[in-house]
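Input sequence (128 aa), recorded before submission:
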Amino acid sequence: MQTSEHFSRQELLNNLTDAWNTQDVDKVMNCFVDHATYHIAFGPEALGQSYEGKTAIRSAVAQGFASYKDGKLSVTSMFVAGEQGAARWLFSYTGVDGKPAVIHGVDVYEFSGDKLKSKDVYVKYFVA
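Predicted structure, token format:
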């Protein structure tokens, strides 16, 4: 049975996608609890690069938006199951060579109430 909390969490993920596509850092940050973690796909750690707390996450998100000014996220499927959820997506942007590029990825989420406690990013690249 799906509860109001389930639907609230799905709405949160939809709001996160909208905020990402408008590159609105404040709206993205409204989706996270204060002590959240964000693990991007690339970096020196087993989980890529980890950011803890809203200040660190805000900086990482702003840097990502600056790097992908025309980036658009298209969620192809999502689910929420209790305290966890996931979204499969395509991220389209213009590469440094000026050509269109697409990343396929999955975000794995942990919730705390009606906010995100953790966002963990996994990606696949197509190289022609």
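Checked by second reader. The chain is about 30% helix and 50% strand.
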